[in-house]
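Need the bound structure for GDP-alpha-D-glucose, inputs here:
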Amino acid sequence: MHKRLVVVSNRLPIAIFGDEIRGFEVRSGTGGLVTALKSTISQTKSAWIGWPGCGSEVPFKSLLLNYSKKANFELIPVQVTEEEILRYYRGFSNKSIWPLFHDLLGQFSFNPEDYETYRSVNKKFAGIIAENNRVDDTIWIHDYQLIFTGHYLRELGIKSRLNFFLHIPFPSFDLLRRFPRKIAMMEVLLDYDHIGFQTSVDKRNFISCLKWLVPEAKTVSKRQESIIHYANREILVGHYPISIDFNEFNNLAKTKETSDTAWFLKENINAETMVLGLDRLDYTKGIPERLRAFEKLLEKYPDVRGRISLMQVVVPSRLNIAEYQELKSELESLAGRINGRFSSGGWIPIHYQFRTLDRVQLVGYYKAADIALVTPLRDGMNLVSKEYCASSSNDRGVLILSEFAGSAEKLRKGAIIVNPYDIDLTADAIYAAFIMSVEEKEHRMKILRAEVRRNDVHRWVRRFFGEE
Ligand code: GDG
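Answer from helper R.:
Posting the output first, comments after.
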């Protein structure tokens, strides 16, 4: 389809393990974007540009070269120093943009030096893209860490069509107003030719922010996509909900390995109903609120005690940021307190695991879960909710989903929708799922699976590039 697709993201889709003595190993990464694009990228002639996740103490160039040959796409590293990571990634990206764009103003802070470093790292990315640019490349830049990269590519004279996709939500004008460099941010976004958002709400927010902040930009809106006329150029803006490879999860869920994992889990959990929570460690995911909702369920509906357990898997993430360490401690003490209060006999209400699962384990956990509790306070899309449906190959799982997850826009028909701030009603939703008839479960899950199957990740790519 494309001459050559060049994907650009903060991190390359790999992780490097080991040391000089034991030797190094390159493994495929596990983040949302990697999972989403993996199959597309290996099927077209592609390159991926990003930070390899390590410094020059690791011989990453030769490691990446070897990995590229096996993976069938080129990996091009951008070297970023410790100091830059501190300011560009942990600082501006994750203390300013991330909380503000997730509506969590309380966690938002702004440091001008971090902002300057963010811009200079974006410029560095642009330099590497330009160095490797071939005529006819389709350049696709991803996410909030690289908003200014398109602008610097233009400064370098790159004329290629520039595509950008934002994986996180776009805030309303009332929130963006708080951001000290808001006009600059809106203007550099207009250096792209095509901007994609996850949901119609994000797209609407962006257009309304433009009206206030860049009034000379004129928008002509259609149903799916809009055209912005600005500085004698046309910028296409659309919403394209990211998805997953349905068949991959569906097929994996039917294997003996995932069945064995699911069986082992159920045997050990010692309760007839297993509720699953699976999230990266992040304050946007609503994990403390979820544990409190589960506690409320046990308080309000004593008949579930001894019969239902929550398996909460928290995947380590951003641990060098203080807020994330604090969240980890909060979760450990919450789970401990609730277990201390309700455990009896061999039954434990909350099984808390702080770990990374491999792919087979992941699908095994989805398969074992009678109920998935996906309750972010705000989420761009949320792939876990879709992966759960694709792995529920027996049609019996129940999805409880936050109305603030982007995926709720399309999954609201089959899921039980909750407001994660409403602890009481979330507890009621878990109870409703617990007592739900098999017929209703099957009916709802069939709707969900049909939706995820129809709108899979391949369609996301095709829709973004206007191929359907
Ligand atoms: C951002 C946006 C948007 C998680 N733990 C393990 C594991 N994972 C995989 C899941 C899923 C992905 O990571 C997580 O994706 P989410 O969408 O749930 O969340 P974010 O990481 O916050 O992703 C989000 C996404 O980008 C894509 O646009 O949906 O809104 O915040 O695919 O399966 N995978 C394995 N082991 C784990 O322990 N193998």
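Comments: The mean pLDDT is 94. The pocket of GDP-alpha-D-glucose is lined by residues 30-33, 35-36, 167-168, 242, 280, 315, 356-359, 362, 379-384, 387 (CB under 6 Å).
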